[in-house]
Amino acid sequence: MKTSTHGAALRTTPFKLLKAEDASKILPGTVMFLPPRDIIPKAAFTDPEFLDGAFNHPVVIISCPKPTQHNSQVELVIHVAAKGLKVNTGTLAAQRFGYLRVATESKPYAKDTLKLWNGMGMKRDFCYVNVKQSYMIELVALAQYGFKEEVDAYRLTAQATTKLINAVRSKEKGIKKMKEKVKNRTG
Fold first, then answer.
1. DSSP letters of the chain?
2. Where does residue 25 rank: exposed (0-12), middle (13-18), buried (19+ CB within 10 A)?
3. pLDDT of the chain along its 187 residues, tens only?
4. CB count in 10 Å sphere of residue 131
5. 185: in domain
6. Is residue 70 part of a domain?
7. In the chain, N or C terminus with fewer CB closer than 10 Å?
8. How many domains in the chain?
9. Residue 125 belongs to domain with CATH number
10. What is the span of the domain harbouring residue 107?
11. 64 vs 54: CA distance, rounded Å
12. At the top level of its lineage, which domain of life is listed (predicted)?
């Protein structure tokens, strides 16, 4: 545990912020954790598009510079624990709404999920990645997902990473086309 002075009061947090020596281990597909806003170092860049609800969630890195350094800006998407998606829509319907399911510890071999490269699974059931929007953040602002494992223990397989990146880029194109249509109708 670390003691944080970033918030208004001194508090103990369970977050292991990324160490400089671990930055080179971060690749696309690595699962990290976006801690609460008050834990993130004040000088670290965070995307102004982040809503308060985005913090305190797992994230997946989808692009990063090579070599990756502690102060590198990386692109990420956010995990959501979406029990309602599973109950109400099913995995394939959730994909149409912009969510891809990720393998979990309780169901690591479930069909139609993004798999982690070493057989690991996300800690919570019904874990989805929101592919509707990606964000930029400085790597120093992120924390390790999990505590006992190496910083890169939770990483999507190459196939799952490619599927995720393609889904994000496809959604971005669709959103851009929709905005252009609205602009052309109103302009």
1. -EEE-SSSS-EEE---BPPGGGGGG--TTBEEEE--GGGS-TTS-B-TT--GGGSSEEEEEEE--SS--TT-EEEEEEEEE-HHHHHHTHHHHHHHTTEEEB-BSS-TT-TT-BPBTTS--BSSSSEEEE-S--EEEEGGG-EESSSSS-TTSSBB-HHHHHHHHHHHHHHHHHHHHHHHHHHHHH-
2. middle
3. 444 444 444 445 578 899 999 999 999 999 999 999 999 999 999 999 888 788 989 999 999 999 999 999 999 999 876 554 444 456 655 666 788 888 888 877 777 789 998 888 888 777 888 888 899 999 999 999 987 888 999 999 999 999 999 999 988 776 666 677 777 777 6
4. 25
5. no
6. yes
7. C
8. 1
9. 3.10.129
10. 2-175
11. 20
12. Eukaryota
Tell me the C-alpha to C-alpha distance, in Å, between residue 72 and each of 24, 46, 57: 10, 12, 20
